[in-house]
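Priority: low. Protein: SMI1/KNR4 family protein. Input follows.
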Amino acid sequence: MTTVLRHPRPGYMWDWWAVDAQEFLVQFSGGPAPEHLLVHVDRVDAAAAWAEENRPAWFNDALPPLHAFSCNGELPVYTRNGVPNSPLRLSDAPAVVADVAALVELHKAVGSTWTVYLDEGWV
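Result:
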């Protein structure tokens, strides 16, 4: 089943979260999101604001405690930023972030070499 991806606000950098098949937290930045997530844009914004304020390590160049991918904003391709030594599980995430991540379940686990390519929808 393909999920349509759209930018919630064209030109605006947007962070959102998902959970993979092994219940690890995954962060996506700078690109489109699954269309059904857009109805929860206020919750996603609140999670991003909380994370930026309380967990700045998630957003710097050091290895974050979660699987993190970024998109250049133009092409529908997300590329991994780094591989965490001890990935954060959904159950260990702050409630504001976990509530958003639970809205998007990936169909497979995010392994150490996995890159997400989004050609015509959600893979």
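The helical segments are 41-54, 95-101. The radius of gyration is 13 Å.
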